Amino acid sequence: MTNRTASCCCGQLRIEVQGDSLGAGVCHCFACQRRTGSVFATLAAYSAPFAVTGTATEYVRTGDHGTAFRFRFCPICGSTVFHTEEGNDTYVMVAVGAFADPDFPAPQDSVYECRKHAWVRLPDGITRYAKDTD
């Protein structure tokens, strides 16, 4: 079984996931743009169990459909590393950049295309959604 470790910039906060990703996607919503400081977030889902080391600061945000998400970031360097859905401990969403792996597979989905910057180009064949898919 393949294990992957994602970490913050300073290395204090880490998450180890097991197995293949359930899928990866990008989100262009304004909350993700503000949260990442980039024009979109790129996330990969992994089934539980997962192991976290280090200390995380948490921020809970409620999405457009009323689902609450708990984001974990490093209190030292500020890097967002992962988040979970409140009340659902079956999977975790990990920031793809936190793996620091340029060979990480391309995302399959793109949500909130209605807020995508016009100059952003994504892989051919990606499934596109104007808003959230919930």
Compile the SSE list and pairings:
Elements: E1 3-7, E2 14-18, E3 23-27, H1 30-36, E4 41-47, E5 50-53, E6 57-62, E7 68-73, E8 80-85, E9 88-95, E10 109-111, E11 127-128
Parallel strand pairs: 3-10, 10-11
Antiparallel strand pairs: 1-2, 2-5, 3-4, 4-9, 6-7, 7-8, 8-9
Description:
The protein is mostly beta strands and 134 residues long. It has a single domain (3-128), classed as Metal Binding Protein, Guanine Nucleotide Exchange Factor, Chain A (Beta Complex). Helices cover 5% and strands 43% of the residues. It has one helix and eleven strands. The protein has one helix at 30-36; strands at residues 3-7, 14-18, 23-27, 41-47, 50-53, 57-62, 68-73, 80-85, 88-95, 109-111, 127-128. It has an eight-stranded mixed sheet. A hairpin with a 6-residue loop joins strand 1 (3-7) and strand 2. The longest helix has 7 residues, at 30-36. The mean pLDDT is 94. Belongs to the Gfa family. This is GFA family protein. Keywords: Lyase, Metal-binding, Zinc. Residues 4-113 form the CENP-V/GFA domain. InterPro entries: CENP-V/GFA (IPR006913), Mss4-like_sf (IPR011057).
What are the salient characteristics of this protein?
eight-stranded mixed beta sheet, 1 helix, three-stranded antiparallel beta sheet, 5% helix, zinc, globular, GFA family protein, single chain, lyase, mainly beta, Mss4-like_sf, Metal Binding Protein, Guanine Nucleotide Exchange Factor, Chain A, 134 residues
CATH topology heading: Metal Binding Protein, Guanine Nucleotide Exchange Factor, Chain A
Query: How helix-rich are the residues, as a percent range?
Result: under 10%
From the coordinates shown, what is the CATH architecture? Beta Complex
Structural class: mainly beta
As laid out across the biggest beta sheet, the strand order is: 6-7-8-9-4-3-10-11
H and E string: EEEHEEEEEEEE
Distance between the termini: 30 Å
Inertia-based shape: globular
Overall pLDDT metric: 94
Task: State Rg.
Answer: 14 Å
| Uncertain segments | none
Helical stretch tally: 1
